[in-house]
Amino acid sequence: MNAQEVSKFVDDSLWPRRLLHVPTMTSYPWTPGDVYGGHTRPNYLAFSYTWGRWRLDEEENPSVKALPVQGITWRMPRVHPAHFTVEEFERTIRALPALQPYMFQVDFVWLDIACIDQTPGSKESAAEIGRQAKIFQNAFCTFAWLTSHAEPCDEEYVEATYRLEKSISEIMSEEPYTSRSVEHDFANFLNFLTDDPWFTSLWTLQEAFLCPEVIFLARNGQVWLKGNPGEEIPRLKEILMWIEFLTSIVQDSRRNFNLHSSPEIQGALERSGLIGLLLGSPMVLLSVAYHRQATSELDRVYGIMQVFNLRLGISRPEADTTKRFTLAELEDELGQELFKQYPVMSQLHIFTQIPDKGKGWRVGQYSKMASDLNWDVYDHLKSSRHRMTASAQFSTTLVDENLWGSFTGRTCLLHEFEAAWTAYDKLIDPMRVPFEIALDVPSPRRPVDDRQYHLETLQSLLREHDDAIVLLLGCCESTWALGRRPASWKPCHAVGLILIPYADSEVRNGTYWQRRGVVSWKLGEPRYPAEMRMFLQGETDSWTATSGIFG
Fold first, then answer.
1. At what angle do helices 263-272 and 179-193 cross, to 10 degrees?
2. What single-letter DSSP state applies at residue 49?
3. From CA 88, how far away is CA 102, in angstroms rounded?
4. In the chain, N or C terminus with fewer CB closer than 10 Å?
């Protein structure tokens, strides 16, 4: 864009700054009226792929050409042909209009290297990176390019599906089976689906979350999964729904096999990011981001911020693009924004290693999903049939030039929970788990049932820290309104943050708390007496108003 065009472009516009016209391979800038090369508000496709790890330096492999695109002022990046050749790249881009499944002509594609200025330090580039959510969510159709798959995989998909379905059918029958068998087959199926660099890229993780209806393409430019004749092309959303369906079958079987606690399956879900996509939880995706491949460490925040609808660092419209942010600064900025917009969700993770002192208040390099909590804790945050009411308020405060978290809310001694659950244990359905606890830096899980595991974890923590407290993060309600009847909201579950005081020698100017994990518990158990139900909702004298600093 020239200076005049930039000045007219409204940053919160739903339209991209540029679009690629495929028939002429020309990148057209936005002009007033949402016009691109004479085309007003054209439908456009979005193309998701990964290439940064294979980018060639200027002097490397000089014979390799860049994608030929007209109408741009920047030098197009070149990619190592082992990942994909420029001929394969151009052929795939040119094929996109014919591959989209709708009965409309679509001649424009949003392609990052053709539509974002690749000049280092470009203000336009930084701003457009902060607008990825709008660009992808408003695309007519989105394609993802799986370059490690040379051709469509229908036969392999059918074979992997058959093995998994056979294993699951054994669970539902009287035939002998081993949990190891279904665990192994399920993990193999997930690994088969996600065995491509696209599932290890930071930027594509964000794009997958923004566009669950993405269609996968093989390296030859053909649809990777075609499905059965006469049926619609399976998209990421359908694949996720199918995985969720199979998961529910195993979970609900009378064998009570805990699929989610399987290390092999959990690993496959977390490595690929599918666990976050299944739950629709951006918080889960953020923890996955730290284990994905990134060209720059700053991309661990920049490459995921749009799932929270945030613009941080140099992507802010008013930002000085010459400023060089550190990863710690971006993580602090992200943590502050999550405090404001997602106070409950901001704490629904655990640390696999102890974070730096004072940094336990926000997600970081060692964050991951709190997999010992029921998936409903995450799922209900986005469900229209559930509503979460936040009970704690968060902010930040400087302590010796280090940013710590601070809280105000209701707290209760953790041993009060143990006493209550022990006292009323016989009133709880033996098939239900009344509470779930997920600790930071967890010990290897013992092969016991869920109920026993969580009780032992709670008791073990109290033996070490009998002064541990629970900060009530929020209470969730659910509704199942029918027809025109008004919604009737009922208590569902609550979540809390476990805190322990720092040693006296480390405490200055009041009580400083160290984050130790998260806990969730069921509400509305009909067999509980009224006092127990009130206690679990934070409405008895056991809870006190507390303010403190934590990290």
1. 10
2. -
3. 24
4. N
Residues 6+ apart with CB under 8 A from 35: 41
Instruction: Give one DSSP letter per residue of 181-215, joined into a string.
Output: HHHHHHHHHHHHHT-SGGGGBHHHHHHHHH-TT-E
For residue 126, give the nearest of 298, 325, 331, 314 by alpha carbon. Answer: 314
Angle between helices 282-289 and 202-210 (to 10 degrees): 170
Spell out the per-residue pLDDT of the chain, length 551, in tens: 554 454 578 877 899 999 999 999 999 999 999 999 999 999 999 999 999 999 999 899 999 999 999 999 999 999 999 999 999 999 999 999 999 888 789 999 999 999 999 998 788 888 888 888 899 999 999 999 999 998 888 666 666 666 666 766 665 555 544 555 666 777 777 777 788 899 888 888 888 888 888 999 999 999 988 766 666 777 888 877 777 776 666 555 544 455 555 677 777 777 777 777 777 677 767 667 776 777 788 888 888 888 888 889 988 888 887 888 999 999 999 999 999 999 999 999 999 999 999 999 998 888 888 878 887 888 888 788 899 999 999 999 999 889 999 999 999 999 998 988 887 777 777 777 888 999 999 887 766 778 888 989 999 999 999 999 999 999 999 986 555 555 688 999 999 999 999 876 455 555 899 999 999 999 988 888 899 999 999 999 999 999 999 99
Q: Which distant-in-sequence residues (6+ apart) come within 8 Å of 157 by Cβ?
A: 192, 225
pTM here is 0.81
Write the DSSP assignment of 141-157 as a string of letters: EEEEEETT--S--HHHH
Distance (Å, rounded) from C-alpha 502 to C-alpha 500? Answer: 7
H or E element in which residue 549 lies: strand 544-550
Q: Are the C-beta atoms of 42 and 108 separated by less than 8 Å?
A: yes
Q: Mark out the alpha helices in 465-536 (DSSP H runs).
A: 530-536
Rounded Cα–Cα distance for residues 494 and 388 (Å): 9
Q: Check if the beta carbon of residue 494 is closer than 8 Å to that of residue 521.
A: yes
Judged by phi (left if over 0) then psi (alpha if -120 to 50, else beta), residue 234 lies in beta
Strand runs (DSSP E) across 315-433, as ranges? 350-351, 367-368, 386-390, 393-399, 402-413
Helix (H, G, I), strand (E, B) or coil at 6: helix
Going by C-beta distance under 8 Å and a sequence separation of 6 or more, which residues neighbour residue 175? none
